[in-house]
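Team,

Forwarding the record for the chain on the shared tracking sheet. I've put the sequence and predicted structure together so nobody has to dig through attachments.
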Amino acid sequence: MMRWFFTLIAALTLSGCGYNDFQRLDEQTQSAWSEVLNQYQRRADLVPNIVATVKGEAAFEQETLTRVIEARAKATAIQVTPDTLNNPQSLQKFQAAQGELGSALSRLMVVSERYPTLQANQGFRDLRVQLEGTENRITIARNRYIQAVQEYNVLARSFPSNLTAVLFGYQTKPNFAPQNEAAISSPPAVDFGKK
């Protein structure tokens, strides 16, 4: 009889402590993270096709292509493990590599506008549209991940579920942050001087 009483008390206590919410939100963050990785992989898979198409333009700037190739290599070389979600340094390293690839691709697209024959190439235009769509998908996936992490972290920090977090070792999860946080927090310099 006493055994059933303790089982009933334990079940009632655990149901109100947020344990199941931690499980649900942890799965939600992992699922959202998988989608982020999926979209980054999609972008990485487009890069060789874009580079091959651009290489066909004889006078194209080699330095720009080299930066894209190197940035892709660096971004795909980072080993993403389940620990990446819980380690701020690993997440920041991953985010920096992806940001570098994004910047290199943006530079490539800007430079490519100087080459009319490249702009006229239907294959290049198709790849550009795919890249733009992928960048939009990355933004959406990152936003969903940010929202999932926010929900998880609110649960981990709110009372009484924070007691469950301490008891079971649930830490808050790191989130994406702007790469140039210092630069975007300072006001832009405006110069109305004459030239």
